[in-house]
Fold:
Amino acid sequence: MTTDHIIGEEKSLKEIIKDIDIVPLFQDAVSAGVSGVILKDSSGEVLFQHGNSPEGTDHSADIPVKFEGEVAGNLVITGDRSSKYLVDSIGTIIHDALKLILKSRFKSLLASDTHETVIQQSYDELLETNNKLKLSEMKYRDLAGSLEKKVQERTDELKKAHAKLLQQEKIASVGQLAAGVAHEINNPLGFIASNINSLKQYVSKIKDMLLFYRSAFEEQGLTAGDRELSQEKWKKNNLDFILSDVDELVRESLTGADRVRKIVSDLKGFSHIDDVAGADIHVNDEIDRTLNILTHETPEDAEIIKEYNELPVIEGNAAQICQVFFNIILNAFQAKQLNLKLRIRTRHSGDHIRIDFSDNGPGIPDNITNRIFEPFFTTKEVGEGTGMGLNVAYDTVVSYGGTIDVYSVQGNGTTFSLVLPVKAGMNS
Amino acid sequence: MVEYDELENRMILKLVYYGPAMSGKTTNLLQLHDILDQDNRGELTVLDTKNDRTLFFDLLPFFLIAPSGLKIKLKVFTVPGQVQHDATRKAVLQRADGVAFIADSQLTEETNNFESFKNLEQNLDFVGLDIEKIPLVVQFNKRDLQNIIPETDVTDAWEPTGIPVFMSSALLGKGVLDTFRRLLELTYEHVDRRYMLWDKHGLDKSKFVHQLTMRSDNEPLHEGI
Structure:
């Protein structure tokens, strides 16, 4: 509302004087003997006229009409030459009357204008106050509404942060447990391996001795009954097979023990329980280590194609990096149980390294591509997945100043691309 | 805020006599009306419909034509002083080109003067005028009465502000013209800066002031106190 409240605006004669004021006056003047009366405004426009027009008349009186000190119009009275005195007198009378009319009309006009202006102004002020109140009410409503939303947002953030902490703690405690178990296994494994080695030597000696006895026994004078009995017992005990198998048996046991030792060592390495933060990380080695840990999760016919290139070491916490690889590779293994092909490619380029994990799995549906890094987002059955795996991977990579991208074509595999800066300033 | 119509070659200036109730604003205008030559002014319109107090306001118009032909109408208003007529005061103060603040010299009126001046500041701000820039004079009226604030106190209080202060007795016609004249001078300077009254219209300050303050020969001069 932009009403201007101006008092005392300019008024013209036309606006101030009404017919009812002036017409009777002019009529009376003509009755009294003048031939015509005219009121013009300052531009010469005729406002009121009664009687004859001044043309062709003998005498006329032209009286300027002043309003607010300014000549606002003219009063013209006409008559014949003989009535000059009458014309002038009536002119004076009408002029005086006109001044009074102007004064009283203007006063009442000013009063009513003022009244209207003041009322309008007060009304406008009220309206404005009302609008301001409405606005502020709206603002507070908005504030109240958004406050609830903000509280909800903060609560969600806190929940997520809390869950993440729990998850990280879980990962850490699993690592610690694994490291502890590994350490405990190492001791008995040590003497098992050592004993089997001794056993291998013992068996070879026993075998040697046994074969010596047999040949001596059978060639030198034994009774036919003895010989028969001996052969029968040899056969019954299946010693031919045993002697040929015992080596294989011991060798397999040793291989087994060695594999256990390796698993334990990888487990310890993977958990990096002994590492200090900020150590050098050999990415290719860590990928291998992670694959070893995941042996039991690897589908039997899976084909893992490693295309490693020489990489510079990066600085950081190897356990965290392994966790990232673990989560991505495990997803690939779980995505396709038959005929899985997983291609792992590492490259060094400029100031960063790039690691691509490409599988030939079913791919990620378009509608969830942008949600897979969200915490608690999972497509797995309740209880099977936490929905934290890729979120942890994402946060870890970001904390190294790197990026993680996913390219997926539905039905045609998924590629996770990790880019890590070589001089990563690890921030945790 | 001068109303200037270039096409019509017309300018309307508005001066406002502001102040507390009963300080003598209307008396100032009545005196001007009596003192000044009627050729240059119109009639005084007094909207005093209740108890001889100004319910709405008074209006005394002046008119002059500059050498260039520019018609200048000067409208001098009073505002109602009573506290409850604030809406009318705001309306009258709209687009004012100059303000004379008429204070009541009586010691009992100090608070009212103060409140009214504060109200003037607020209302000028309300109608978008800057009290630091608008031509402003102050008149301490009723110097003819007893128990009035000493002139030295007034001077001490107002001198630092740079606002011209006049002592008057409007009832006796004393100081009224001085106040008006100074306000006209300040208003001229203010308007001239923007509308070049001298450069474009050949109207200088002394002529402007002189023409609007010409005494009527027919009226007896009021000599006061």
